[in-house]
Amino acid sequence: MNTAARIATGLLLTVTLTPLLLRAQDGLTDVATISERLRLFAPATLTADLSMLSAGDREALAGILRAARTVEDLYMYQEWEGNLSLREQLRGDTSAEGRVWLRYFMLNLGPWSVTDRYRAFLPDVPDVKPARGTLYPPDMTRTEWGPWFIKLNDAVQKKATGPLHVIRRDSSGSLVPVPYSVEYAARLAPAGEELRSAAGLVTDSSTKHTLLAIAGAFGDDDYAAAEKAMLGSSGPLNIMIGPTDRSADGLFRYKRGFEAVVGLRNTRETERLAMLENHLPAIEKHLTGKTTIGPGDTRGATIRVDDALYMGGGAKVGAVGTAVRLPSDTSHVKGEDTRTTILRNVHEAKFRLIQKPIADAMLNPAQAAAVTFDAFFLHMMMHELTHRLEGSGPDTLPAAGGKPVGAAPAPVALEEARADAAALAGLQFLIDKGTLDKKTELSLYATEFSSLLRALRFGLTDAYATGAAIQLNYYLERQAVLPDSDGRRFRVDIRAMQKASRELFSEIASLLNDPSAPRRDTFTAKYAVVPPGLATLRERLNGVPYDLEPSFPSAP
Q1: pLDDT in tens, 181-195
Q2: Contact by Cβ (8 Å): 416, 464
Q3: Does 350 reside within a domain?
Q4: What's the pTM?
Q5: Number of structural domains in the chain
Q6: N or C: less crowded end of the chain, CB within 10 Å?
């Protein structure tokens, strides 16, 4: 499983605290400094309506959540052997300062600050997060690894560098790979029993199959089979537990860290998504003049909308994930479906606590008032759907995952910018048809502009942020976005942005279908830069949080 934020987690490490990193690192263990760090993460209570669940599902949920919390403990142990005992020590300190330390510890799932390049903020721990965690012997060196690895046969080399084996020493002191199922049996076996018990209670057969598959993987490491079961799960509960593609291995980047995401289907947004999917063939015809997508054609990439009931381990460290993509490795499913699960309540919290304040600070007041989560989420769902249009045509039909067969590799930033522009144009098509209310129009364009500003705030270190810069420069050039009278705020010219978004979609589509890279390079060199007037965006938004400090009351 691959838990993704719209803005990548690692960006927090590189850009969030650039001004703060200039201060003395010795002050990191000061409670006032940690309180300052915490202000960058907005407390967010993430809830969902459990009334749709049967009595059996609700009873099963308690055991599922116990298993999920066990997996978070395992993630913390993978990171450092002292994490769990230190957590209990912090929980025992009920002073005001103790509560601050515990909050920041749980946000980082350890005593090293992700926003300070993993430097320690508590005493009596290593100054910097140990790269090897507990995945390798503490005395193993890279010098020892090389000669040992070279002497292994192919099968053992595959285990040694594989994502599901730790490295230990045998009785003679030699290095040896040990499967996760063996190394972590004491923790995974009870979690597996919780999931098997839950499987006997849930009402949906696909959910039962998923729970049993995950429990089975805890014992035999067949997480490919578990992820395949997750992909086929269609019940109201959505359980995604296992090693993520986000590595816990700071030494070689080989080993996977555990995470858990438990979701509940959001009925309203699922219905809106189905409505948008039904109109996708007509939108494709409108945008491209072709119809290659038929009713129910997902191109191997399905979408589900959930509210998160619990997120643990790698799913919430640094930046809270907003989506879960399955499988982790598409080669495991040999061309079968992929699925993106969008976590609506996480998106809503980030919108309310981060994007709306950005809109209020940066947009003309009248347009800032029109910025809504409803418009944001509508555009975001259409963005995901329009990835199916990429490369569509007689010669480059998308394969599973939405990548064109036979097309030249395309920069991800351009793909993201094209999907954004296609989503705007597609939603405008539905507004013009009367499928969506005309009142949606102002909210749609003002909200999308604020979303691009939020992405750009992280700098050009991420594909989506770079895609946002491309769009902003394109819209500024075409006067679809204009400085307001005070010179510090902006306003959107809706008609100009309608036209520009169609043109941007067509231009990028042409670039991505062109096998010659020079045209793409020229385009990105021109547009993939920080737009004029926005170079000081981060400073102007001082005080607006960068991410969430989540809590899950449904998982006490």
Answers
A1: 999 999 999 999 999
A2: yes
A3: yes
A4: 0.92
A5: 1
A6: C
